[in-house]
Amino acid sequence: MADPVLRGELAVLTDYLQHFHETFEQLCSDLDAEQLARRAVPPSTLSLLGLLRHLAFAEEHWWRRVMDRQVDLPKLWGKDERRDADFDDAVADDRMVAEAWGTWRSQVAFGRSWVESAPSLDVTGQVHGQDIELREVLVHLIDEYARHCGHADLLRECIDGRTGH
Fold first, then answer.
1. What secondary structure does DSSP assign to 77-131, as a single string?
2. d(CA 157, CA 163)
3. How do residues 31-42 score in pLDDT, each as one tens digit?
4. What's the pLDDT at 82?
5. Which of 102, 105, 123, 147 has a CA-to-CA distance to 113 between 20 and 30 Å?
6. 55 near 144, Cβ under 8 Å?
């Protein structure tokens, strides 16, 4: 039996997060604005487009606000005024879809860059006045994506029968 490859904590965490980024993107691929905005479980406002906007917000929140301490940024999608604006306002509009993908990709890229430049997983940010380590933020985002990829898998199956296998 071959010896297992030991990659270290950082590689494991970032590889899992990358896997979920790719899985979510694949689950949303080849869909038009109407399909992405379709709410498959009324009366819920849950849709793939809403999830995309929500995950862009999560990336922005954890990387820019918490870890980079850019606390004065306005919240994406009007979430300063309404907590569920990312979902509630997700409508079948090509411009909205393009904006959501662009924002999500830019926030994911910012997060990757931030992690690559961090000296260790012990680096801290601030959330609700408390210190939080980089490793915990990575685990939180893995958890967030794992949960929402499950939602996305079910939503995609309702749209065209495709799943994320």
1. GGTTT-TTHHHHT--S-HHHHHHHHHHHHHHHHHHHHHHHH-S-TT-EEEETTEE
2. 5
3. 999 999 999 878
4. 85
5. 147
6. yes
Q: DSSP of 13-65, one letter per residue?
A: HHHHHHHHHHHHHHHHTT--HHHHH--SSTT----HHHHHHHHHHHHIIIIII
Give pLDDT tens digits for 70-91.
989 998 988 888 888 899 999 9
Whether the full predicted model's pTM is greater than 0.90, yes or no, is: yes
Q: Output the CA angle 158-156-41, nearest 5 degrees.
A: 50
CB 40 within 8 A of CB 159: yes
Q: Tell me how many degrees the CA angle 116-122-126 measures, rounded to the nearest 5.
A: 95
Eight-state DSSP code of residue 133: E
Residue 97 has pLDDT above 60, yes or no: yes
The answer to whether 147 and 155 are in contact (CB under 8 A) is no
Provide the residue type at 43 as one letter: P
The amino acid occupying position 67 is M
Give CA–CA dist 134/118, Å, rounded: 9
Q: How far is Cα 122 from Cα 133, in angstroms, rounded to an integer?
A: 5
Contact call for residues 107 and 53 (beta carbons, < 8 A): no
Whole-number pLDDT of residue 4: 67
